[in-house]
């Protein structure tokens, strides 16, 4: 896996993935930025949520669950001192659909957390306290 990050101006950078996709990162105005993109630490958090969501949806699809929507809400706490590393991250999955089986949702979240999500497992190995929860929203037929 490869990526390139190129300085644009001030505190703005353009990141390009090895697969050819780009994203703008920028800092707040009080740090030389123009607030035109996500912060690098936000990118880490979003990436972790994306990795875990991919796992959960893949497993729910394989178990033939009728998922209409899946949202991963991430809440992170950072250290007050420099470096302001993540200390705690909580991932809450809100899964909406019809006739969803709680056992399948629970198992998908657990397997992502314990076995498949490289990003969250890496964070845990680095000392971040990572926790997971889920909520099921049953939609009308």
Describe, in short, the structure shown.
The chain contains 3 helices and 6 strands.
**Strand and helix order:** EEEHEEHHE
Number of helical stretches of at least 4 residues: 3
- The CATH topology of the largest domain comes to GMP Synthetase, Chain A, domain 3
Q: Mean of residue pLDDT? A: 96
Q: Helix proportion of residues, in percent?
A: 25-40%
Structural class: alpha+beta
Report the CATH C-level class of the largest domain.
Alpha Beta
* CATH homologous superfamily grouping of the largest domain: K homology (KH) domain
Number of domains: 2
What radius of gyration results from the CA coordinates?
17 Å
Report on the biggest sheet.
3 strands, antiparallel
Distance between the termini: 43 Å
Characterize the structure shown.
With 141 residues, this protein is α+β, with helices and mostly antiparallel strands. It folds into 2 domains: 1-38, N-terminal domain of TfIIb (Single Sheet); 40-138, K homology (KH) domain (GMP Synthetase, Chain A, domain 3, 2-Layer Sandwich), CATH 3.30.300. 33% of the residues lie in helices and 38% in strands. The protein has 3 helices and 6 strands, in the order βββαββααβ. It has a 3-stranded antiparallel β-sheet with strand order 1-2-3, with no helix packed on it. Strands 4-5-6 form a 3-stranded mixed β-sheet, with helices on one face. α1 (40-62) packs across α2 (102-116). It is elongated. The N and C termini lie far apart (43 Å). The model has no long low-confidence stretch (mean pLDDT 96).
